Amino acid sequence: MDFLTLKGIQHTYFTVSSATTALKDISLEVKEGEFVSFLGPSGCGKTTLLSIIAGLIQPTNGKVLLENKPVNRAENDIGYMLQQDYLFPWKTIEENILLGLKINRSLDDHKREQTLSLLRQMGLQNVEADYPKQLSGGMRQRVALVRTLATEPKLLMLDEPFSALDFQTKLKLEDLVSNTLKRFNKTAILVTHDIGEAIAMSDRIILFSASPGTIHKSFPVPSELKKRPPFAARNHPLFNDLFNLIWKELESLEPE
C-alpha cells in the first residue's frame, strides 16, 4: 500500500468573469520514507498541489489519501516548512518551537525535552531564551524545522525552504535537513526551482508542464546519489548527467 496517493487531481480557480485550470489529471503515489521533489516552469501549479496535499485547498476534482484515508486539514499528520520561517518575533526560540505542541495540547515534560534536544542536535545550543531577530537566516530555518518536526508529522511539505538563503548556508542546510529526515524516516515533498537541489536531496523528481499543470515526466535518482549526503552527491559524475537530462527536458517545456 502506498503511503500517499493522489488520484485524478484537478483544480480550477474561478473568478466572476473567468475560470483558470491550474492542475489537471494529477495521479501520483509516494512511498513511506520517500523524498520526492516537484520541479517545473513558473505557474505549473506546484505550490497549489502542495496546498491540496496538505488539505489547505480542496481540489475541484480528485482526492488525496494519506495511509488510505482522506486528508483532513484538522489532523496533525502533515508538517509545512516554507521559504520564510514565520517565527513569532515576540516569542523566544523555546516558545516558538513548542508552539505546535501547545496548540495540539500535547505538550508535556517529555516532549519539551525531546524538542529542546532536537534543537541542540541542529547545532543550536543555548539559544532557547533568544528571540528570532538575534539569529541568522539559516539558524531561523533550523528553528522552523525543529518546530515542524516537534509535532511528529507523518508527511513533511517543503515549499522552497532554502531559496532565501545564501548559497553556502543553503548547501549546509540541505545536508542537515536530508540527514535529519532520513534519521527519522520522514516522507517529504519538496517544491523547488533548483534542479541541483532536487537531485541532491531526492529519491525521485517529478517534472510538471504548465498551463494547466500536468505530470510531464518522472526521474528516479540513481542509488549512487541517494546514498550520499547532498553536498557529496553534487560532486558525483552522475549528478551532472541527470542535471543535464532534466535541464533539457525543462527547456523543452518553455514556450517558444
UniProtKB/TrEMBL annotation:
Q: Which domain of life is it from?
A: Bacteria
The record, for SUPFAM superfamilies, names: P-loop containing nucleoside triphosphate hydrolases (SSF52540)
Taking every annotated instance into account, which residue ranges of this chain make up the domain ABC transporter?
4-235
Q: Name one GO molecular function term.
A: ATP hydrolysis activity
Q: Which SMART domains match?
A: AAA (SM00382)
Please name the Pfam families in this protein's record: ABC_tran
The alphabetical list of record keywords is: ATP-binding, Nucleotide-binding, Transport
UniProt xrefs under InterPro entries? AAA+_ATPase (IPR003593), ABC_transporter-like_ATP-bd (IPR003439), ABC_transporter-like_CS (IPR017871), ABC_transporter_ATP-bind (IPR050166), P-loop_NTPase (IPR027417)
- Its recorded name reads Spermidine/putrescine ABC transporter ATP-binding protein
